[in-house]
Amino acid sequence: MKKALIIVDVQNDFCEGGALAVPGANEVIPYINALMEENDYDEIVLTQDWHPANHKSFASNNNRKVGESIILNGVPQFMWPDHCIQGTFGAEFHQDLNRDKVTHIIQKGKNVEIDSYSGFQDNNHFMKTGLDDFLKYHDIQLVEIVGLAMDYCVKFTCIDAVNSGYITCLHFNGTRAVNVKPDNGRDAIYEMIEKGVTVLG
User: Is 49 annotated in the active site?
Assistant: First the structure.
């Protein structure tokens, strides 16, 4: 059975000191590096938030405050600080992440009009990113998922992987939650398990 490791959004803006830093984010990098070193993955894929500066998920572009919600193209949208803007340092992968064995990069969130938490598709399920096509082309049947953040981009990538027919495993030690609300991370785990994701300790 061919397997892939999907590393979600380990970018400077989500790490310590970033515009949208996830608590404990830097702690997952050595774990992810060890996974790549100790396992034989057929493919290793990075996803990368890659927003235009005028992206409508940014509070600054809607005259809103960070933490408010709006309806964006029929989908509820949390208002985020400006982050992972194309071509900026914040959008780059963290320098400590070992990319020697990476075989593919998927960029997401490029459409000004709609956000894309999942590595597979945007939030209104209208545009695919190409990740599913890439995995199927390479006959991948099992995906292991790590990265940032557990209660947003990791969760939706995991759920979309299950829905796309992959055996899907989340490495709990390879992810951290934003926890806008204190229970968001815990609730994300329950939701993923309910959807068919296997959570590895």
Answer: no
pLDDT digits (tens, 9 = 90+) for 17-59: 999 999 999 999 999 999 999 999 999 999 999 999 999 999 9
pTM to 2 decimals? 0.97
Catalytic option among 15, 153, 158, 169: 153
Is 153 assigned a catalytic role?
yes
Identify the active-site residue in 15, 49, 108, 155: 108
**H-run or E-run covering 32:** helix 28-38
At the second CATH level, the architecture of 3-199 is 3-Layer(aba) Sandwich (3.40)
Q: Which residues contact 20 (CB under 8 A, 6 or more apart)?
A: 13, 14, 80, 81, 83, 84, 178
Domain boundaries, the chain: 3-199
